[in-house]
Structure to design on (294 residues):
């Protein structure tokens, strides 16, 4: 199995795990979507002969840079910002100035399902792109 | 979950504010790094910043243009945090703070990520977005929170309500 094929398999497994988590702990899917997306970036970057770094921001930057001149570049850029920010917020209780919020009340199940569909779409596109 | 007592007494406790950029800002302050002007137009005309990072200013200007055209009424401000404070490693992200009347975190994130996607595609440096409730920021201001004061001091407002 090539490095890029392993990365795409990781992406698919994160998505499958995320689907299973929706009913139980839907906010966790933001996290699995992030990792699926990051792995899709690894698949695409390594299929194009690039090294995939270890730091989160650097990985997303390499993914976006790898999509140069591709029609899905804007979608990848927007999703990278969105998922990166969710990852920041969903690890901690959220302060509101008058109390605390659990991350699970800050994203609905419908939002999570939409996010999951968007990331699945990108993973499918990348899977078709890698040799 | 919040209990009744948590909610009742929340205003009595000092708010904690320990975002990941604080070590960098504390280092900048300790080294006497000059804070940037508070807004972008001031940066464009400023002669006072020495050693300005030439890669950052165009990113902020590009981001500001994109945000202006997609500004949401509930947003109060978007800050670029410490864009000129020195970092110990090559810059791979710029931290942005969005605060306002945030009812749905996800809807606001979706909107700002669409607004900043063109900037990201152009410069390939991640806009790392943090969203805060306006009331939380007001509380930090009222408490004169040291970390918030330092964050504000080293930030540039790239979008503001009533611009």
């Amino acid at each position: 199995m090539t490095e890029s094929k392993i990365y795409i398999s990781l992406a698919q497994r994160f998505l499958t795990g995320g689907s299973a988590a929706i009913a139980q702990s839907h906010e966790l899917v933001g996290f699995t979507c992030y990792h699926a997306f990051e792995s899709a970036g690894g698949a695409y970057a390594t299929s194009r002969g690039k090294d995939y770094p270890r730091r989160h921001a650097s990985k997303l930057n390499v993914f976006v840079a790898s999509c140069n001149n591709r029609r899905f570049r804007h979608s990848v850029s927007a999703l990278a910002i969105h998922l990166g920010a969710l990852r920041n917020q969903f690890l901690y209780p959220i302060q509101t100035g008058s109390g605390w919020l659990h991350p699970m009340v800050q994203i609905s199940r419908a939002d999570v399902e939409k996010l999951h569909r968007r990331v699945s779409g990108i993973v499918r596109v990348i899977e078709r792109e890698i040799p | 979950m919040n209990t009744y007592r948590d909610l009742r007494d929340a205003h009595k406790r000092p708010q904690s504010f320990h975002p990941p950029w604080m070590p960098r800002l504390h280092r900048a302050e300790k080294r006497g790094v000059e804070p940037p002007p508070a807004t972008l137009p001031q940066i464009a005309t400023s002669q006072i910043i020495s050693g300005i990072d030439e890669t950052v200013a165009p990113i902020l200007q590009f981001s500001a243009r994109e945000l202006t055209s997609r500004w949401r009424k509930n947003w109060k401000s978007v800050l670029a945090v410490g864009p000129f404070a020195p970092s110990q490693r090559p810059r791979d992200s710029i931290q942005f703070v969005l605060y306002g009347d945030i009812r749905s975190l996800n809807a606001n994130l979706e909107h700002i990520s669409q607004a900043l996607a063109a900037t990201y595609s152009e410069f390939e440096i991640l806009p790392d977005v943090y969203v805060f409730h306006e009331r939380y920021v007001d509380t930090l201001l009222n408490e004169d929170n040291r970390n918030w004061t330092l964050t504000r001091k080293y930030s540039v407002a790239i979008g503001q309500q009533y611009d």
Observations:
- The CA atoms of residues 69 and 115 of chain B lie 8 Å apart.
